[in-house]
Structures are given as C-alpha cells and as structure tokens.
C-alpha cells in the first residue's frame, strides 16, 4: 500500500475505524487522503440550518483536522452532506464525489465502512464506494477494504462484521489513535 483513500460518512469515523492503521502506515511513508462525505452533526438538531447546528459542523470539522494533523494526514476533503439524510441524496451524487477523488488522488487502496452497520449513512457510503471501485471503473485500485466501527457495526442484528484481514498494531499506534 502506497496511497490509501479512506472514505467515511462523518468526521470521527476515520479515526474510530482506522486510526491505528493510519498511525502505523503514516510512519512507513504511505500517503493518505481522508474523504468525508457528510458533516456528522445536524441529525441531532430539530433545525439543521440553525446557527447552533452550523456551529457544531464547524467544531466537528476543526476537531477532525486537529486529529488528522496529529496523525500527519494533510490531504482531507469535507463534503458536509446532511447527517442522517444521505438517503435523500441520490447515490449517484455520492458516487460522483468518490469517483472524482479516486481519479484525482489515484489510490492503490480504498478503505470504507462495512455494509453490516446500523448507521444508514455508513451503508450508503459503502454502497457508493462499491459502485466507484467496481472492476473496470478504476483499474489502479488494487485493494478495497472495509472497517468496523464499534457502537455501530455490532448493532446490525441481521448480520455481523466478519473481518478476513487483520493488521497488527504496536502499542504506539494504538496510543496515537486514542490521542487523535
């Protein structure tokens, strides 16, 4: 893995899902880009356009930048689609955001959410990522992987996350993830 694009629904999913992996591979010279599809906050507000909701989006994005700066990730994109409302955006619109990033960044590895997740935004990002990385669409993508986010993945009663790839992390990588 030389260039890894991590595609997530909301700021914090990147660190929760693969903060240890980022820490481990960043120290080996791997180049990362984090692509945030949504803003991760407005689903908690009665009025998603309120000043308080917009302030929370800004705070969450700044927190994500601070965490990723700690992990030495410089290439970050926020799209700020409405949290909890990805199903109101056409999947092709989300797919186009992902395809553009794959075309521009040219990753050999793409990592995203698991399809067995209780969070619908996570599932939609997974499905859009599958569409964007289908065979023939982007031949330079050699690995497509998904991660688990505890408190979201284990609540899907119909199926559970069944990993088939594991990364051994040193204590320092786990500590970096926790700090981020």
Q: Report Rg.
A: 16 Å
Overall structural class, as computed from helix and strand content, comes to alpha/beta
- Helix amount: 25-40%
Strand order of the largest sheet: 3-2-1-4-5
**Element-by-element helix/strand order:** EHEHEHEHEH
Mean pLDDT: 92
Poorly predicted regions are none
Largest sheet: 5 strands, parallel
The amount of beta strand, in percent, is 15-25%
Estimate the global geometry from the Cα principal axes: globular
Number of helices: 5
Cα-to-Cα separation, first versus last residue = 22 Å
**Strands, count:** 5
What does this structure look like?
There is one protein chain. This protein has helices spanning 13-26, 51-70, 91-105, 120-132, 171-179; strands at residues 3-8, 31-38, 75-81, 109-113, 143-147. By secondary structure, it is of the alpha/beta class. A 5-stranded parallel sheet has the order 3-2-1-4-5, sandwiched between helices. Helix 1 (13-26) crosses helix 5 (171-179). The two termini are 22 Å apart. The model has no long low-confidence stretch (mean pLDDT 92).
């Amino acid at each position: 893995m030389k260039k890894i694009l991590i595609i997530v629904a909301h700021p914090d999913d990147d660190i929760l899902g693969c903060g240890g992996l980022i820490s481990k591979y960043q120290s080996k010279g791997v180049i990362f880009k984090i692509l945030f599809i949504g803003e991760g906050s407005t689903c908690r507000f009665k009025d998603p356009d309120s000043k308080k909701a917009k302030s929370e989006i800004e705070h969450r994005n700044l927190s994500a930048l601070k965490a990723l700066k700690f992990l030495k990730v410089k290439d970050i994109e926020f799209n700020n689609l409405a949290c909890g409302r990805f199903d109101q955006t056409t999947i092709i619109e989300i797919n186009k955001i992902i395809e553009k990033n794959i075309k521009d960044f040219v990753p050999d590895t793409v990592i995203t959410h698991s399809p067995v997740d209780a969070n619908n935004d996570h599932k939609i990002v997974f499905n859009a990522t599958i569409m964007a990385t289908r065979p023939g669409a982007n031949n330079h993508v050699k690995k497509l992987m998904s991660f688990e986010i505890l408190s979201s993945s284990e609540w899907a009663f119909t199926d559970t996350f069944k990993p088939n790839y594991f990364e051994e992390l040193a204590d320092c990588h786990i500590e970096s993830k926790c700090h981020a």
